[in-house]
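Entry for the shared binder. Reason: the reviewer on the internal report wants the predicted structure included alongside the sequence.
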Amino acid sequence: MNKDVKFLVAVNNDYIFNKIKEKYGKENVFEYDILSKEDVIEFLGKHKEQYIVITRDNLEGNIDNNMYIKQMRFARPNIKIVYIVEELTSDYKQFLFANEVFNIIEGKNLSIDSIYKSIEHDKSVIYENKPAVEKYIKIRENCTLPKKLIAVYGTSGSGKSYVSSLIAKSIAKDLQISVALLDMDIQNPAVDIYNNIDINLDCLSSIIDEIDNKKDMNEILDKYMICDKGNKKLWYMTNNSSIFDIQNKYTNKYYEKIYNSVNLRYDYTIIDLPSSPFLDVVSYTLLNATDIFFVLNPNYISIRQGIKYLELITKLWDIPKSKIKIIINKKQKNSLENIQIESLVGSYKIVGEIYQDENMDMYINSLMYNKNYSINKNKIYESLGLKNFTDYSKSNKVKKYNILKKRIGVRNVN
């Protein structure tokens, strides 16, 4: 292999990025792991060096797979592309070969050795079906992690829907496992807005109607769960319920059936809850959740209300404190410091803080589109029992390269 060849990594995976630098020398690898298809195209159009591009077909972006290949070839006709695909059909392979992509890795499980092999051979189609040694670069349908039902609860106006969306998007992208985000905030639903879902569909009410009509739950989920535009691992159940339905129709028997069915289908289920503790969906969900993220704003009003809620759910419903983790949302320069918040809320552990996003109103009011979420998630993942994953997600040390998008900042609490 030519020693003058440079490497461009565009897989949005810190482990792969670091192993390529370790193997081929960091001076030969572009300093960032590129996050989206559009950014890859723009980079290749501006840089004339000879690159080996290592990328994958399910990278984020609004370009379909065929157009992604064509635009890379148009931008830099002579580059070598090492292409990771989820499924390699005969038609797909024929298309890739026609566009001079001969180094292809297919499989739900992926080892770093297969990437090395593909880089170092002129033509190689590799099918990875055996379990990977490096378990956190797996691209697979079947997850070996225990299933989780994660409740997101907190004070009124704290940003529960926003935090729910951050966590759902991060887990689906990083772990490449199926995640369902259920909007159970029957007071003030907002998951559809935060995730740019333009389908006018009240999934929750429709699902409950279908349950009453004795429809099969698999058919119901097929009909009403909405797939994320940028990540087919992430699915939504939206909600725009009427006050009449909330008061007269919704009961725990529906929540139980929905949660059980969704839990069978998806690896992780994340539930966005209303703030009122007096709605049945709150107590039922918190009692059945494996983990609870409690969202607070860093001001005395939110914390005073939060303390009352925490006392209620731990004393009245006997929910263990160990199951509850605090996330501070809407942090800004005049906010309370974490040490002050910790002294007020007692022994609860703060696992993350999210800074106020100045562009949020523009996004909510449809003056800004395709907002991307970013979260520094080591503490959050550790709180979910994903400690090994944090070895490969040093996002505070490994810079990401993203030309087109300004990502919101979230940092860990030490």
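Summary line for the report: DSSP finds 16 helices and 16 strands in the chain.
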